Amino acid sequence: MRLRSWLLPCSTAAKPSCNKPPEPSSSSFYLSSDGSSLSEMSANCSSSLTSTPSSDTSYSSLQTNLSLQSLPSIPSLQKLPTITDALPVSVSQHHLASFKLPISHLAVHGAYLYVATAHEINVYDRITFSHLTAFNDRDSSSGSVKGISFLRREILTSHQDGKIRVWNLSENNKQFKLVNTLPTVNDRLRRFILPSNYVNVRRHKKVLWIQHADAVTGLAVNGDSVYSVSWDRSLKVWQGSNHRCVESVKAAHEDAINAVAVSAGGTVYTGSADRKIRVWAKPETEKRHVLVATLEKHKSAVNALALNEEGSLLFSGACDRSVLVWEREDSANHMAVIGALRGHRNAILCLIYVSDLLLSGSADRTVRVWQRGADGSFNCLSVLEGHKKAVKSLVVVSEGESDGVVSVCSGSLDGELKSWKLSFSPNSNIMNCR
């Protein structure tokens, strides 16, 4: 598999940050001819340690990992554990399934858990974890599934072929039916005649501005709006009611965009291989989204973004092995960095935030569980180990507000699907965090 040359020198324990990528050319963000996956590139943006992860998650292990200072200029938000600290969580692990191909994305909606491997999406019961069905299993031409999101009763999937597919679930026979492919045929027909509707994507090649010219790496939904980002460096906005593309930011970043998140208020965050997070908003006086801020603290490609429910905290993970925590400033509609969470030995590939818990999955094959305290600091409650390759996706399956149990699923590039049950002690405020 050929990798982009600038992604290779990313951090190891001896080299804490990625080298600066070269200035992008007009075609630098396109797939190589062998269709290499950026998820695999991200997994390799930090070289793997030669030793296997230790199964010890005790005080000494946490102390050792806290010594890895990947971004020393940013203060740490972690509380150093003391020898008398009792971690208020117990963990049980269950192996759910093994796939021949890497797991690229996990999602939960309604009664179902969705597991994407290559072009196929497997569906499980989110309570019993029994396999129910699979869809898109015959259309290998779509390429691997990069993201899954939900708009009312519709399921949206983004693919390596640059398209977004819309599915409906029939409750009668539990079958998933493809109802649309974005951009739609009608949308293309409305625009293909006028030359002004075409944009240059590389030398001697033009496409309609409503099309993604490369893999669609992320989806986010807010109200009736769907936001998509791509390796082609663009951000697009789709209207959910008619599946039309209503807006496109052609060069939202200088390099491939890997992640997107949107707050309930409509503020959009995009994370890119150019090491930047950009903040987009649509003022009442404007017809389109405008760039309101660029957040530049990471030293390498940004792979993952997550927001808390209020949209006041943003978490970002990158190849520099750090999770940065950003807080919304009262005087602005964007974020300022307040600290870093350290401990992972390799690139951060996925993040989820639920209640007061942040979970981070990494190319070091582990998942870390962080809890936010009342003072804004974070404790690393546990290090979940068991995967043999990079952890690519995380999803919360159930939240037990009454019994203090949170169930999480993780998917990795070794094709392993695992379930983790996190049980919190009665004195932990996780049960009363809402």
Explained architecture:
This protein is mostly beta strands and 434 residues long. The protein has a domain at 101-342: YVTN repeat-like/Quinoprotein amine dehydrogenase (Methylamine Dehydrogenase, Chain H), CATH 2.130.10.10. The chain has three helices and 30 strands. It has helices spanning 38-43, 59-66, 185-191; strands spanning 89-98, 103-109, 112-117, 120-125, 131-135, 145-151, 154-159, 164-170, 175-182, 198-202, 205-208, 216-222, 225-230, 235-239, 244-249, 257-262, 268-272, 277-281, 290-295, 302-307, 313-318, 323-328, 335-341, 348-354, 357-362, 366-372, 378-385, 391-400, 405-412, 416-424. The strands form eight sheets. The chain has a four-stranded antiparallel β-sheet with strand order 1-30-29-28, with no helix packed on it. The chain has a four-stranded antiparallel β-sheet with strand order 2-3-4-5, with no helix packed on it. The protein has a four-stranded antiparallel β-sheet with strand order 6-7-8-9, with no helix packed on it. The longest helix is centred in the N-terminal third of the chain and has 8 residues, at 59-66.
